[in-house]
Design a protein that fits this description.
With 366 residues, the protein is α/β, with parallel strands linked by helices. It is built from 13 helices and ten strands. Bound molecules: guanosine-5'-diphosphate and magnesium ion. Magnesium ion binds next to helix 8.
């Protein structure tokens, strides 16, 4: 069953409107990624928060009206609610209410591929659910009912907090082990003269499509956020230098990712922190593309990858005029001090040039 979702954006100051709208747009993409159909969007400006429901009752009445009107069966709200607020709001408006964090968790859960990323998702979920355990028994027993209720470990959670804590400790051990295995693989790669490059960039910038374009796997990226969770890898080979570079795809970065999620996804980012160079992909058509670029840099700095040699890729040039491409390339080079390669991952434009640049860069750091 496809769930019909009403999206609710909450604006705290009139000046913050543009940001809230941007964020709501991202929420709409996330919601589609989770498999919902968006039936309407509501934007509310809230000056005073109602502690029990977050929103004032009058606004909840409006929302209830929209839900009935559009036949929605789910409300997704673009803020993080307390467990009690979530429950109260849901009771008041008559449909499930899920917040941004739960939506992201749900997407992570449905997209986790490797054992390690599954553990990471479960860990994040357990940490999220732990403070909510009291009084959500009904939600937990409805396994697989829809968005916000999917994911690993839910039936196990029906027991009690102690069991959850034990499970958390167990998963942490497993993750440590997986990390060690990954380090071993890495040192063996080094011994065999392999270099590594990690694709980074804001979500939907075209990393996965670029990985396929570079490595010739010929499959289009999906127009869905987070389609990559478990790290995917493929390699390119240069017959002149006899060098092989393994390129890894990573999970997209997104705004407002709760810090506790950041922590449990560190293992995914570890691949990035350990790679020889970075390939930072930018979609110049995204709203506030430069701001997003900077947000990604901030995350890179926080995982200790801020000083790495970086190739900046200006992607999707098939959608830009050549004058615009030249302008953006120059601007980005001024801002970053790195070389910027304009490409189209879709048409394959300049992919050869990018490959050359990658081989050059990895040769120079050795
Ligand atoms: P990721 O989230 O960074 O991995 O992004 P994806 O590779 O999944 O791409 C997101 C969307 O952008 C998909 O719909 C792609 O088809 C599209 N896309 C990627 N590269 C290009 C490009 O060079 N040109 C155009 N027009 N679309 C692209
Ligand atoms: Mg991807």
């Amino acid at each position: 069953m496809v769930q019909k979702a009403v999206l609710i954006g909450v604006n705290k100051t009139p000046e913050g409107r543009e940001k809230t709208v941007d964020s709501l747009e991202e929420l709409a993409l996330l919601s589609e990624t989770a498999g919902a159909t968006n039936v309407s969007m509501i934007l509310k400006t809230v000056k005073k928060i109602n502690p029990a429901y977050y929103l004032p009752k009058g606004m909840l009445e409006d929302i209830k009206g929209s839900i009935l009107n559009d036949g929605a069966d789910l409300a997704i709200i673009d803020i993080n609610l307390s467990p009690a607020q979530e429950r109260n709001m849901s009771e008041y408006i008559g449909v499930d209410v899920i917040d941004r964090t739960r939506l992201i968790l749900d997407i992570f859960a449905t997209h986790a591929r490797t054992a390690e990323s599954k553990y990471q998702v479960e860990l994040a979920m357990l940490n999220y659910i732990l403070p909510r355990l009291k009084g959500i028994g009904t939600m937990l027993s409805r396994t697989g009912a829809g968005i916000g209720t999917r994911g690993p470990g839910e039936t196990k959670l029906e027991t009690d907090r102690r069991k959850v804590r034990q499970r958390i400790a167990y998963i942490k051990d497993k993750l440590k082990l997986a990390e060690r295995t990954r380090m071993l693989h890495r040192s063996s790669r080094k011994k065999h003269g392999l270099s590594t490059a990690a694709l980074v960039g804001y979500t939907n910038s075209g990393k996965t499509t670029l990985l396929y374009a570079l490595t010739g796997k010929g499959e289009d990226g999906e127009n869905k956020l987070f389609a990559t969770l478990g790290t995917k890898m493929a390699s390119i080979y240069d017959k002149f230098s006899k060098r092989k570079v393994i390129i890894s795809d990573t999970v997209g970065f997104i705004r407002n990712l709760p810090p506790f999620l950041m922590e449990s996804f560190k293992a995914t980012l570890e691949e990035t922190a350990n790679s020889d160079i970075l390939i930072h992909v930018i979609d110049p058509l995204q709203k506030s593309a430069l701001q997003k670029f900077e947000e990604v840099i901030k995350i890179l700095v926080s995982i200790g990858a801020g000083e790495k040699k970086t190739v900046v890729v200006l992607n999707k040039i098939d959608l830009l005029t050549s004058v615009r491409v030249r302008f953006l390339k120059t601007k980005l080079e001024w801002l970053t001090g790195d070389d910027v390669i304009p490409v189209s991952a879709k048409t394959g434009d300049n992919i050869g040039m990018l490959k050359e640049k990658i081989f050059n860069d990895v040769l120079n750091i050795k």
